[in-house]
Amino acid sequence: MQIRIANISDAEIISSLMITTFDENFGHLFEDRQILLDYFDMFFSVEKIKDGLQKDNNVFWLAFVNEKPVGYAKLKLHSPSDFVDAKKVSQLQKIYVLKEFLSMKIGHQLQDVLLQRAAKHGSEQIWLSVFVENERAVNFYLPNDFVEVGKHEFQIGIYNFDFIAMRKKLQN
Q1: Strand partners, 153
Q2: Which distant-in-sequence residues (6+ apart) come within 8 Å of 171 by Cβ?
Q3: Hey, is 161 helix, strand or coil?
Q4: Which of 98, 111, 73, 104 is nearest to 1 (CA)?
Q5: Which of 63, 112, 133, 146 has the most other CB atoms within 10 Å of its CB?
Q6: Using the 8-state DSSP alphabet, how is residue 104 labeled?
Q7: What is the side-by-side order of every strand in the sheet holding 58-65?
């Protein structure tokens, strides 16, 4: 297994992983499939990912097994939140791994490099949002010293989803 920082030439790989992993985890929640496809076009397109990769405060990582891309993570530096009372805050925006590779603990390794980067950057805390019904993800973060700090809603088309905001204090 290999993890490396992504660059603009990886936008198509990241887009594909985003769509596949989101669909694997949440596709069943969308009775109207077109709403999900429209969401993918709006937020997971190659152009949108290229734009994100060019922003100084975004850092993406890719995980590979036998040279096959199997997961990714995204950190947003300088990302204040109403849920976190600190001046230097980053956001763990995404960690996703293809279902068939979850048992390899790749998500933990992606989280480790992401947290190290946030701490090295000087972030005092890191926060994230996780879908309240995504028990696997919630149970992934709780043992790693993330604590719940609030709740909020997120809307995709006609669908409203409840999310938990979590934060972790970082050691610099």
Answers
A1: 162
A2: 119
A3: strand
A4: 104
A5: 63
A6: G
A7: 2-5, 58-65, 68-76, 89-97, 125-131, 159-169, 147-156
In order along its 172 residues, the chain shows pLDDT tens digits of 999 999 999 999 999 999 999 999 999 999 999 999 999 999 999 999 999 999 999 999 999 999 999 999 999 999 999 999 889 999 999 999 999 999 999 999 999 999 999 999 999 999 999 999 999 999 999 999 999 999 999 999 999 999 999 999 997 6
**CATH code at 49?**
3.40.630.30
- Sorted by sequence, the CB contacts under 8 Å of residue 137 that are 6+ apart come out as 130, 131
Q: Rounded to whole angstroms, how far apart are CA atoms 79 and 67?
A: 32
Q: What is the pTM of this model?
A: 0.94
User: Which domain does 122 fall in, by range?
Assistant: 2-169
Residue from 98, 132, 102, 111 nearest 21 by CA: 98
Q: How many CB atoms lie within 10 A of CB 69?
A: 17
Task: Give the count of domains, the chain.
Answer: 1
Q: Are 39 and 52 spatial neighbours (Cβ–Cβ below 8 Å)? A: no
